[in-house]
Each structure stands twice: as structure tokens, then as C-alpha cells.
Fold this protein.
Amino acid sequence: MNYAFRLADISDSEEILNIYAPYIRDTYISFETEVPSVSEFARRIETICRQYPFIVCLVEDKIIGYAYASKHRERAAYCYSVDVSIYVLPEYHGSGTAYKLYEYLFYILKELGYYSAYAAVVVPNDRSICFHQKFGFSVIGTFQKAGYKFGKWLDVIWLEKAIKSYDKAPGAVKSMNELSVDCFNWENCDEF
């Protein structure tokens, strides 16, 4: 199967939302309870893409998964940290798609100057926790009863991954428009 990877565009909004919507409607995985409109979702993608990478994976020109980074917290000293999210169509779970999406995402995050990434996983979700741990994340804590959905209180496990070494003072974080697309090798990210 030929996979292609690229940065997302707002024209991808409906296709990406079609991947995400079942996670909202049918699972605890997303804490959203209402599927956003396509225009609202396009606004979200546009906002994220100004500062952070948003990567899509395609098979035969169809988007089958995506991963992106977003702001971790508001205070200035948090600017070197990001939250990360990843969603893949169920029929591609276990195919390596998610791993490749994260490889591209983390390569770009490192180039932008980020140091720490955090992922929140609602429990139970052993598949996601195992995937994140295989990718180098460590469990750092549980937020007990952090959300309420489908008539049930839900815990959230937080995981952390270092993107860069913490051995020196960081420089300025770059935004996506400060990176050259030439720095991405979309054909083979195994070298990253």
C-alpha cells in the first residue's frame, strides 16, 4: 500500500472531520460531545496550522489519519511544550500509519524548537496507551474523574515524551511559517 504524508490544509476539513466525528459520537476517546460543523473545524485547523504542525496520511488520495500538536498551557514558560493528538480510521489501526504520522510530527516539532510533548488518553484505552509507550512516552499521572460522557465519569492518563535534550537553555520557538517545507522528507522519515 502506498502511503503519502503532507501538511493539512483547510480544504481537508470535511475529510478530517469525517475521521474524527465517530470518535466524538461513539466513543469516550474524545471529550467533545457535539460534532463541530465543517466551518468550525476548518477554523480550528487554520488556527493550529499557524503555529503547529498538522499532518495527514493519505492512501490513494484519501485521508486515512492525522496527527497534530497544539498549545499545552497558557503561561509563557510553557511555550516549549505541546499537546499532541492522533486519529486514524479504524481499518488502518495496527498498520503503522499512526507511528509514521508521529514520526513526521515529532521531527517537525523538534525543528520548531519544542522540548516536551504531552498526550491525554481516556481510560480504558489500552491500545492508545501501549502505542504511546512504544513511541517513547511515559505515563506521568492520572486525572481522576476528569470528564463526564455517556453517563459515566472518566479518568484521563497523561503521558510525556521528551522531544529534545534539556541540557541547555532553549532558543526561541519557531512558527510553522518560519520553516522551509524543504526541511521535510515526506518520502522517507525513517532517517529522523
User: Anything to note?
Assistant: The chain has a mean pLDDT of 93.
